[in-house]
Amino acid sequence: MLLSVQDLHVTVEGKELLKGIDLEMEYGEIVAIMGHNASGKTTLALTLAGFPQYQVSKGKILFEGEDITSKSIDERARMGMALAFQSPPAIRGIKLGHMISLSAGMNPWQPKPGDDPDLPKKILRKVNLEPEKYLDREVNVGFSGGERKRSELAQIFAMKPKLMILDEPDSGVDIDSLKVLGNSLQEYFRTEKCSMMIITHHRHILQYLKPSRMHILSGGKIALTGSYEELMPKIEELGYERLIKEASNT
Amino acid sequence: MSDEWRKKYRLEALQAVTKRATFGNDIDLSDFVTIPKGERGIDEDVKKKGLEVGVDVEGKKGGTYFQVDHSVLLSQIASRIKGVEMMTTDEALNKYDWLKGYYWKALSVSQDKYTAIAELRQTKGYFIRSAPNEKVEQPIQACLYIGTEGVLQAPHNIIIAEEGSELNVITGCTADSRVKTVAHVGVSEFYVKKNATLVFTMIHSWSDEAYVRPRTGVIVEEGGTFISNYVMIKPVRDIQSYPTAHLVGKDAKAKFNSIIYASKDSIIDLGNRIYLMAEGTSGESIFKVVSTGTSKVYNRGQIIGQNRNTKGHLECRGMILCPTSSITAIPELVAEHSDTELSHEAAIGRLQEEQLHYLMARGIQPEQAIGVLVKGFLDPGLPGLPERLQEEIRAKLALLERKSSPQEPC
Ligand SMILES: Nc1ncnc2c1ncn2[C@@H]1O[C@H](COP(=O)(O)OP(=O)(O)O)[C@@H](O)[C@H]1O
Ligand SMILES: [Mg+2]
To answer: What ipTM does the predicted assembly reach?
Structure first.
């Protein structure tokens, strides 16, 4: 088992945002998380990643069998957990190329023997950002929606994680970028077999990455779990709220 | 020098030896000596420290002026780089009678006790001049090095960028790693003639116990451009400086960029003043600072708009890494004409936690992440700065990045 979340309760400033989440992921598994706005998807992602403002008031998180509930953000990242942010911050003065090297565990200002200086270039090509244009751009400064999402992927690809948490990698992105993102993720999954937790509102990205399971979040809880084939058409037909209501009636 | 003509400056200076400066702590310089015991050659420390401030003593290319304490060890060059001459100010005053007309003209000898002492206890200094219409591509480097404990270094520098010329000067000021208490009161007079450009980069790398009071005046004529880049990353005991630019000719420009990493218990009081005297002149000052330890930083800026179609902008961006340090921004805009446009912008805050967490989420340890962010915050991207120097400053900042929790943090 790669990830096991057990009865996870999370509070922020005294307010309970997650109210008992149970969730498991196997190695090489793709899981989709859906749910209406403010249902707690990003809260779950940031809690898994270890953001200290999200306090675990109850329950625990196991990663490869180890309890990581009190580990710091960077420790978790180095253990193999990588988060692609829904809204990443812009960072002036840091070049995307450097950020990719740093994410790969290298020091761009003090390379060690064995470091591949061309790694940032290669990775940028994988997400279809021309290295000539993007290596020296400041991280996320003035990036369009699509560029941001691709820059996120580039950084987490460099980390070679065991688990990717993709928080809406497809929102605010045009159809061409969506294809690029879908293809890069599909290719990455095919070659690296890393597990992916995809938070999304759309089926499009899921057509590239067939999830084995889907969870629908509502009010900080998992309201419904099922297969992609079973749930996706229903979500599209009824919407989250009615679907959850009907499911709880039966 | 025994010259008669200087007498009036000496007399004026004598009147001002106890005159406190407008800003900064009052420093008692009477215990510092101008005559060091032994003479010192260019040894390994001199070379190393020179490199740290961007001056390559052994460099075959650039013109180099190297002053250790009071002796000029190296002032080779004039002959070697086309279109520039470089010598000590004393030599230049002997050689050119007209130079007397530039001496103490960009600032006043009686400004305060430091200018006065610089005149009374002058210890060399460089003279650099680009010939009319010469575009000197190679940067000219000058290094002022203090190698003896208790020394007061008081050079008087003059740079003249003649009409239509372009000149790029890099000055490094530094001290022997072993000396502690030293003082520096360098005077610099810069003259940018019609349509000339002078890029002046100063890298300060003092000792923890250095008292530093540079005094700088700049005069920019019609269509001329003066760009100053100032970098200080190492701690210092107490520095105060307030270079003043007078834009006397139509459409003249001045721009000051400063990058400061304030650490330990440094007291740093820096700023610039720009007089927009002629029509169409413009001035800008951009000050970036990161404060750690118990350092105290003051950034003063003043722009005085005195003519039509003039523009000025002051900017201070500060990051407080340690709550025991402080940053004070004191911008002043003075409009003395209705057709002047002046603005200022100051933003001081702590390290953005959101950014720190973002980097940590990539597996970067917090100490290194802070270093990376500090480096990014200060990263020069200075206009007019040669790529080589840009890289050198980056490398120096990278040192902060590598040291992680930038030096002993708080
Ligand atoms: N740091 C925070 N402080 C206060 N409230 C928060 C914080 N983060 C999230 N919330 C609240 O928690 C709820 C869930 O938010 P979020 O997890 O971002 O939802 P989703 O990603 O599903 O749209 C929302 O009501 C949001 O306002
Ligand atoms: Mg969200």
So the answer is: 0.96
